[in-house]
Amino acid sequence: MVINTNLSAQNAATLLMQSQSNLNASLQRLSSGSKVTSPADDSAGLAVSMKLTAQMSRISAASNNVNNAISFSQTQDGYIQQVNSAFSRMSELSVLSQDVTKTTSDRALYQQEFTALGSYINNVTTKDFNGVSLFDGTTLNVTTDSEANTFGMVGINLGNTTYTTATGDDITSLTGATKALTDVKLAISQLASDRANIGSNEESLSYYGNQLSTLTNNLSAANSQIMDVDVATESTNYAKENILVQTGTAMLAQANSMPQSVLKLLS
User: Fold this and answer.
1) Alpha-carbon dihedral 53, 55, 59, 60, rounded to 10 degrees
2) How far apart are CA 101 and CA 27, in angstroms?
3) CA distance to 74, 81, 190, per residue, from 70 (Å)
4) Among 25, 57, 55, which Cα is nearest to 38's?
5) Model-level pTM?
6) Is residue 260 part of a domain?
7) What residues make up the domain containing 200?
8) 3-class state of residue 100 by DSSP
9) Cα 177 from chain centroid (whole Å)
10) 20 to 30 Å CA-CA from 162: which of 104, 170, 190, 220?
11) Is 69 part of a structural domain of the chain?
C-alpha cells in the first residue's frame, strides 16, 4: 500500500476527463444540430461537405441565371404577341386598300394607320431587358449547371429584312397594297417561326431549372447525412456520457480517499 502514487485515482481521473470531453462534444452537437462541430469529429466528412456546399451554391447561382433567362424569353413573347396583332391589322389594311370602291383619300387613311403600326413594330425592335437587347438576334449562352455549361438561347431579330420590308410598304395604290399584303404575310410567317423558337427556349430552360432543383435536393440530402446530427441517437449518447461523468466523479472521490487507509497501519 502506497501514498505517493495513487494509480486508482489517476485511472479514474483519466476516464473522467474522457467522459467529460465526450459529454461536452455531445452537448455541442445537440445545441448546434450539427454532427461535425470541429474537423476532428469527421475530417473526411467535413471535406466532402465543404465541396457539396460549394457545389450547391453554384447550382443556386445557375438556377438564378436560368430563371432570369426564362423571364427574358417571356418578355420577348409578350412583345411578339403585340407585334403579331400589329401585323395582322396591317394585312387587313392591305386587303382593304385593294377595294376598287375606295378612293385615293381612303387609301391615304389606311396608309396612315399602316405606317403607325409599322413604326410601333420598329420601335419594339429597340427594346431591351436589363440593358440586354431583346430582338437583335444574338444567341445568348445561359449557364445551366454548377460547372458553367451553357444552353444556347436562340436569338430573335425583329430588324431583319423580312420585317423591315413589310413595315416600310406603301398601300396608297392597288399595286402597293398587293405587294404589302405579300410582304406582311411573309413577316407573319417569320414571326410565327420566331415565336416557336421562343417557346422552345422557354421549354428547354424550364427543364434545366427543374433539373437544378432536383439536384439541389439530392445534394442537400447527401450533405445532411454527413453534417446533421441524429437527435434521438445523440440524446441517448448524451445521457450515457452524463451518467459516466457523475459516476466517474464519485469513483474519483473514492479513489482519492483510499490512501487514508494507511493511517490504520500507523495507529
Assistant:
1) 30
2) 94
3) 6, 17, 22
4) 25
5) 0.80
6) yes
7) 43-227
8) coil
9) 50
10) 104
11) yes
Q: What's the CATH code of the domain at 169?
A: 1.20.1330.10
How far is it, in rounded angstroms, from Cα 95 to Cα 182? 10
Mark whether 199 and 120 lie in a shared domain.
Answer: yes
Domain assignment present for residue 1? The answer is no
* Whole-angstrom distance, CA of residue 187 vs CA of residue 158: 10
CA angle 242, 248, 254 (to 5 degrees): 150
| Grid coordinates given for 260 | 487514508
- Spell out the per-residue pLDDT of the chain, length 267, in tens: 556 666 777 887 888 788 787 777 777 778 777 777 778 777 888 899 899 999 999 999 999 999 999 999 999 999 999 999 999 999 999 999 999 999 999 999 999 999 999 999 999 999 999 999 999 999 999 999 999 999 999 999 999 999 999 999 999 999 999 999 999 999 999 999 999 999 999 999 999 999 999 999 999 999 888 877 878 887 888 788 788 788 878 877 777 777 677 666 666
List the one residue out of 137, 172, 139 whose CA is nearest residue 157: 137
